[in-house]
Amino acid sequence: MKKLTQNLKTGKLELKEVPADLCKDDGILVKTKNSLVSAGTEQAIINLGKASLAGKAKKRPDLVKEVLNKMRYEGVLSTVKKVFSKLDEAMDLGYSCAGEVTEIGENIDEFEIGDRVACAGSGYATHAELNFVPKNLCVKIPENVTFQEASFTTVGAIAMQGIRRCELNPGERVGVIGLGLIGQLTAQILSAYGFPVFGMDIDQKKAEKALKSGISKVGVIGKDNIEESVSCFTNGYGLDAVIITASTKSNQPLELAGKICRKRGKVSSVGLTGMEIPRKIYYQKELDFRISCSYGPGRYDLNYEEKGIDYPYAYVRWTEKRNMEECLRLISIGKIDIKSMITHKFKLENYKKAYDLILNNPHNEAYVGILFEYDTNKEYNSVVKFRDNKRGESTDIVNAGVIGCGNFAKSILLPNLSKLKNINIAAVATATGKNAEHIGKKYRCQYCTTAYQKILDDSKINTVFISTRHNLHAKLAIEALKKGKNVFVEKPLCITKTELQKIVSLFSHEPSAMSHQPILMVGFNRRFAPAIIKAKEKFSNRNTPLMINYRINAGYIPKEHWVHDSKSGGGRIIGEVCHFIDLLQFLTESFPVKLYANHLPPKGNILLDDNLAINIEFSDGSCGNIIYSALGDKNLGKEYIEIFGDKKSFVIDDFKTSKFSLAQNKGHFKELEAFIKAILLGRSSPISPKELLLSTFATFRINDSLRLHQPVDLKLNNVVE
Hints:
33% of the residues lie in helices and 23% in strands.
């Protein structure tokens, strides 16, 4: 399918052929009929993309601060690599479209195939022939509303929310500053509800167009005496509310709003403007200044937007979805005139003309609503091929497929795999077509896909790397192993005891039974780090057990992050602590036999698995303490390990290559190198099955210990004894 994107580093716009997005459980797949170009928003995004690196930094100081914090926390080189990797990605354009439902997810009961729908959301309702959209960002289109009209629904919801923030009462008089697309819609919606509207813009043509749409009064900023006109319009009192829909760096809209608003009136900011509130004006009039958040309640809430969990109707009357529905109702009954706002229509293939109009406007054309039109008679494929697979036919090459290309795969896994000589990354599979195409081209794959089964069914691929969200790790690993493929799965191996039991059953009653082919490996990279290898050597041939103290300054992760979700992430104990248990196994050269875990009580945004103290006994008598906390200062560094034994000690501070180094080496490359070497030489996995299983099982037992408030043993049903 075709999808319009922008390269974040160069700012270049591209219409790409990418694999079709897949339908997920909580949403629908929509074949796009029309999508709306939001001129103001997309112009700002494109100009940011075209700016130099210094220009980008100047425009986004918030991101610069975030990068500097990462440098202190993760090291300069690691952070720089991640930044440039992010800049190399393609970004979606568009956030408002309309089309026809072609597929529905398992948890969907309000839509059917063939339904006409309007869709919203950056990253969802994009300028693409096919879009996956979560159910709370879709609404059905009334029969008498066209796809072209419905493609304005998202922008209409933005206008609707700006009005709702004013909490208006019947008879109140309202001003609208900025009569572009959102301003025109705001004025029409206000008029539909019977509010007298005074519209303002610096462009006389826009003001005249707004007047024709039925609003009460308009004024041209910089030409007319706005304050005097408003005074006449309100019998000298001033406007009850002013809605700012202009887009400008200037602070003028806020100043003007303060001047023309009545005492104790309200100002609602929808557009992107200067934000220095003139205190004297707002103080003397005791004005309320309010920010309007996009389409309405639910915006940026992952539970609402991604998981489809609605807010109770009685308590949150107007959500973003209900704002969209109301906008369509007003269009349906003729209270909003969309057709008069459609000034330009382009085939998607002619996107350059549309953006030339917005960015350059060589013929000085007036524009408001710009639409893309789509060829809806096409068939869409989940695979895009790049070249023949010739290199992978060699017997001294590992022919690999990568499933899941999120942040870890893009910043760590794939860059390190590409450095290995004896591997051919034949294919990548990831949930979104844009990401699959970008990664596939970057690493010179033979093909990319959004359907992971294509990789598992590919007889030429003998090795699979799994880097999806945690809930898919076990499922994909088991499927791949049963098809005879070597498997490298990023930690954790699985997130439930049932999944672990299924994996254990693959090894029968003797783990070594699968130690030849295929190989199962989990991404426990730290045991391959140079600092760990040195520590291991120092305590070789020791005569005493080891005492190890392992402190992890884990940092805070927002509670809405998917890692905390029991269904998709499994929580931080299962998702992260397995790393540290594996490393203690490696250092002690023995298996964990008993553990006791304690935690700080959850409070506010701090969850149960954010702050832990874990004591582990090992079969050789060694003892390990793991302190895992989200409460620390990021400047401290993330990991600190102290090892004691045989009257010796060894300290590892954040896996730095030397005392004064800014770079970290956590062993990722050596880990992958060892895995590939084992495959080519027909050896067993670099980490034994018993170690992999016990590291994973121990995380489940940590949760058991927390629940029981007592020590627990680590016997895995005698399967790995």
